[in-house]
Structures are given as C-alpha cells and as structure tokens.
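Mods, move this if it's the wrong board.
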Amino acid sequence: MAEKNNSNEIRITRIYDAPIQTVWDAWTDPNQVAQWWGPRGFTLTTHSHDLKPGGSWNYTMHGPDGVDYPNKTHYFEVEKHAKLVYDHGGNDDRPPLFRVTVVFSEIKGRTKMDMSMKLPTPEAAEETRKFIKKAGGDSTWDRLAEYLGKELSGKEKFVINRTFDAPLELMFEMWTNPQHFSQWLPPTGFEMQFINSDIRPGGSSFYFMTGGDIKMYGRAEYLEIEKPDRIVYTQQFCDENQRLARHPLSPTWPATMLTTVTLTEEAPDRTRVTVTWEPYGGTTPEELETFIKSKGSMTQGWTGSFDKLEAHLASSASNVACRASYN
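Not the wrong board. Structure tokens:
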C-alpha cells in the first residue's frame, strides 16, 4: 500500500504465494501481463516488447468505458528474477509520470514485491496517491495475486488489500469482536446483528443483515484463528432456522464461500489487510461463472466495507482520546 508521508516516493509491498520465477514471468511475459495489468475492468494490448536496458514496452490500456490509454515504458535496469527499473506513464507525445523500481526477493518459497514510484515532488506523489485510489489502481496487485493463484492451483479467487492506520492487535480485534465487526462489514446501506457468536477454531456464528426491504441471514464457521494475523472461515446464506439458503439477490452465487484474512504489520501503527475470497466445496459451473463475473462488484462491496472500517477506527480512536482527556 502507498506510504502516507511527505516523500516524493510511493511504495507498494506485496508478498505472493508463488516462486520468484513465476512472479517474474507474470511481470515480463506480455501474454501473462495482459491477464492482470491495470485496475479491474481494464484490458491491455501489447504492440511491442523489448525487455532489456534501453528497450521499451509499447502498449495500450483499454478502459471499461471504451477510452484507450497509450503507454510506452522505457527500461533502465533489468536483472532477471531480481529487479526492474523503468519510466512509466509516458508515450511519444508526453513525458513519463514517474520512475519505477521493483525488487523481487524470495521469502521461504514466496515472493516479496517491493515497488517504489518516484515523482518530482511530494505534492505530485500525493496527487498520484489520490488518483490511484480513485481509479482503483491498487486492484492491479490484487489481480496479480488472483492470476498467480489460478496458475498455481487452478482455482479462481478474489483478492483485495487495504492498509489501515491501526496497530496489528487492534485490527485483529476489529475482525474477531462482533461488536466491532458488525459495525463495518455490512454493505453500504445495510446493518448487521449477531444472533449468536463463538469466534474460535471450530466455533460458529449466526447473524442477519437488513437493508430497506431486504433481510438476509448468514452463518460462519471458523476453521483457523491464529492471533494476531490470520482468520479463516466459511460463510453461507441461510434462513432464520439456519437452513441453507441462496443469496437473495443472486440465486446462482456459490452456496459456500471461504474467506481468508491475513493481517500484516507494516509499521507499529499501520496494518495491511488482505482478504482472499473463493468458492468452497462443491461448486457448479454456473456458480463459478457468477463468481468470476462478480469480481468488479466484489471490489465495490469490500471497498465500501473498508471505507466504513476506516471511519469506525477513526471514531473508536476519537472516543478513546475523549475518555482519556476526561479522566
């Protein structure tokens, strides 16, 4: 996630469940890059690609609204399986927007991607941060995680990341305390209430959400909880008697979903949340197709929930500060 400081650099760090060679190939093979490069909804056409110092990558990004964005990347450093340095965002008619350095390193069979984007001034960096957030640019790195996951496991997954200004222990509390969880998870316009909850490995919870004329029940079963950084649970829609039911607005939505939440400390007061969502158990081809086609709306839904989580964290911090001041 982009660092929030006065630097003229934006840094993005991700760890992928794939060896370096697989991640490197996904970055440098134009056919693979086309499967994930850009925000959700964008596609890509490569016109030429010469991966070497002094070489360039000439391509066009096609927006979901039909607008084309010509780009030409110029490479300065290419160290196979280790490092890329290039200018990004320019073409024959305009200068590049920023200099990019990407370093790939191995961590116990996984790959750490450490990326920095250097802009002319801190003000330009801040404007670029805002543009990336508005355009959904961070979903590029989520799409890479999904692509790598499918290449290695054959499974379709949905991935989304967000960094929050909150310590790791507090973020874990936000995911495992029903009083907090119910305040931010529901989609925008919905409220959530737990009927019962037993959030521990082997435990389960039963809840309902209401929004307008819609009332839907759900249950979760917790498979793994490793404090303070990992939570794994399944989710199903059900009726008021906890009998399996279908999504009230999408009857072909997968009957059971597996959610994996990974919390990563980026600083003492900053935590990155990674949510991986995938169909679980027996899934029909129709359900899988619905899941794949819904990734854009899933991004919108989780983005709304994460926005509410940011507001809830700010409100909680403000309440704590007020109590401390009063005391």
